[in-house]
Amino acid sequence: MKNILFFGDSLTAGYGLPASQAYPSLIKEKLQQEGFTNYNVVNAGLSGDTTASGVHRLDKWLHQEVAIFVLALGANDGLRGIPTRETTINLQEMLDKAKRTWPDVKIILSGMEIPDIVPGRYAAEFRVLFRELAIQNNVSFVPFLLEGVAGMRHLNLPDGVHPNAEGQKLLAKHTWAILKELL
């Protein structure tokens, strides 16, 4: 069995939904449907996680064999206005740990964005940091995990931030488009 580790925050955990409706579970179903029965999906999503806490939390997963590492952290950094340089350093540290621990690992970095309504350069800097990390590290890239979901009331829970079951299907679709190339 080859493990696919989804390492993220509430978006990965499926906040407010049964685990079976979170996008990693939907990816697991898709793998089965497509005949990739030799893959196991591990959902290491933790609500509220930032890249800073993720750097340390990743250590507890390093003992596992991982074939594909999906790094989907950063949304909470953006919501909290954490400096983009700090987010970049933390994401890079997690990418480095993954490459050191699993030399043959295939990596997907899931990009995050914050709304352009946020004043100043922060939104633009935040958006670009994921793209730059993907290029510098030569890893696969989901440009914006919440594409078509963010800001769409009918695809989110009443809090307007976390995807509902229908929204999670789009997160799965965006991720599958990249993941299928790595299988």
TrEMBL record:
Domain SGNH hydrolase-type esterase: 6-170
Gene3D superfamilies: SGNH hydrolase (3.40.50.1110)
CDD domains attached to this UniProt entry: Lysophospholipase_L1_like
PANTHER family, A to Z: THIOESTERASE 1/PROTEASE 1/LYSOPHOSPHOLIPASE L1, THIOESTERASE 1_PROTEASE 1_LYSOPHOSPHOLIPASE L1
Protein's recorded name: Arylesterase
Gene source species: Pontibacter populi
